[in-house]
């Protein structure tokens, strides 16, 4: 076990109801491609669709900067297994705490892309770019969403018009 992981585990031992160290451990496991361990910690913390518990834990954060980032990261965790409603809720809560937080807008746009809601996706990518015009991920995602929306629109037209 690495030193950073030991510190987080110690924080969990001190206060198992604190959401932040659980989330940090989940993200660490996810980033190190330890998906099963990440899911285990996510389940152990009783995260799924339990926003009141998450919100209580976030109140212990040192400031709103951490809270909205944690919520956005949780949205990413939910997005990966295609739990889109839970992901959207986390991104929306993140944006309530910090309007204009471009990573949450960008990732919310990705949820809409996965659902095939092109206009909503483009709107989110536009908001991300408005917050940070140099955000390459949002630029790339916007181009893909525009192309996919055109392709889908073309496929919906009858062949013999």
From TrEMBL:
InterPro entries recorded: TPR-like_helical_dom_sf (IPR011990), TPR_rpt (IPR019734)
Pfam families tied to this protein: TPR_12 (PF13424)
Keyword rRNA-binding: no
Keyword Metal-binding: no
TPR repeats: 68-101, 102-135
Top-level taxon in the UniProt lineage: Eukaryota
SUPFAM superfamilies the UniProt entry points to: TPR-like (SSF48452)
Keywords: TPR repeat
Name assigned to this protein: Tetratricopeptide repeat protein
